[in-house]
């Protein structure tokens, strides 16, 4: 996976991995970004909910929207993007 990402960056010439991750995370609402940062910290839905003052079902909805907007299949991929953007 890492090799594929590095190859993509080298071929695309679109700038740094950080800039690309930041641009993609810019598609999220502020609240979705806060949830994504929780994912980047490795928090469970319950931990994210406690930190942000929302219920687990609400967090699950935000996580689903984050993954959908970013075109990802799982929360680990979103966590890597948050790290790539330098948000955690």
UniProtKB/TrEMBL annotation:
Superkingdom classification of source: Bacteria
SMART domains named in the record: HTH_LUXR
Signal peptide, first to last residue: none
Cited Pfam families: GerE
Keywords annotated in UniProt: DNA-binding, Transcription, Transcription regulation
Coiled coil: none
Identification of the protein by name: LuxR C-terminal-related transcriptional regulator
Family matches, as PANTHER family: DNA-BINDING TRANSCRIPTIONAL ACTIVATOR DEVR_DOSR
């Amino acid at each position: 996976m890492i090799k594929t990402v590095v190859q993509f960056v080298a071929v695309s010439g679109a700038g740094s991995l950080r800039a690309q991750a930041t641009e993609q995370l810019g598609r999220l609402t502020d609240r979705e970004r806060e949830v994504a940062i929780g994912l980047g910290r490795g928090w469970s839905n319950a931990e994210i909910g406690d930190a942000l003052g929302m219920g687990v079902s609400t967090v699950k909805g935000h996580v689903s929207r984050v993954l959908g907007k970013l075109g990802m299949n799982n929360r680990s991929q979103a966590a890597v993007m948050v790290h790539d953007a330098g948000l955690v």
